[in-house]
Every structure is written in structure tokens, then in C-alpha cells.
Amino acid sequence: MAVLNIKNLPNSLYKKLQARAKSQHRSIAQEVTHLLSDALETPKFLSILDLKGLGKEHWRGVNPSKYIERERASWD
Predict the structure, then answer these.
(1) What is the pLDDT of residues 35-74, one digit of tens each?
(2) Are 43 and 58 in contact (CB under 8 A)?
(3) Sequence-ordered list of residues with C-beta below 8 angstroms from that of 48, at least 6 positions apart, any chain
(4) Domain that holds residue 20
(5) Is there a domain that residue 4 lies in?
(6) How many of the other CB atoms lie within 10 Å of CB of 29?
(7) Contact, 48 vs 63, CB < 8 A?
(8) Angle at which helices 28-40 and 11-23 pack, to 10 degrees?
């Protein structure tokens, strides 16, 4: 496993990182790994049906791409 050393990390940033790690019950190294993983992962795109609490029952059977195309066409 690789080792990462960070030089000249501002104290204020380290304190924020330390507080965040503590609030997440992680070590500072675990928190840095978690933050870097989140920042560098390819975002997972959700379909309209994957969105919870936004009336997904109204979107059953609706093709999101076609719906958006129709909406955009209606703006002209």
C-alpha cells in the first residue's frame, strides 16, 4: 500500500480535518482516504425513478430522456 506525505499543510486545514475525522469516528488517515475516494470516484447518475421522496410514483413508465426532450422543445 502506498504512503502519502503532505508537506506544508496549513494548521487550520489540519484542525478541520481532525475535527471531521473525529465526528466520523475515523482516524485522520482514514478520513483523508475517504475524502480522496469520494472526490475521485466517478459520480453515479440517478434516473428520475431513483430519486426518493420526489413523487417517483408519477414518473413510472416515463422515459426521462424523452420527457426532457419534449420539455425543451416546448420552450421554443
Answers:
(1) 999 999 887 777 766 766 667 677 778 888 888 888 888 8
(2) no
(3) 56, 59, 62, 64, 67
(4) 11-40
(5) no
(6) 11
(7) no
(8) 90
CA distance 64 to 6: 44
Q: Is residue 1 part of a domain?
A: no
Distances (CA, A) of 3 to 6, 29, 46, 61: 10, 10, 34, 49
Are 35 and 56 in a shared domain? no
The pTM is what?
Answer: 0.57
Measured CA to CA, the distance from residue 35 to residue 56 in angstroms comes to 31
Number of domains in the chain: 2
Q: Does one domain contain both 35 and 54? A: no
Residues 32 and 52 in one domain: no
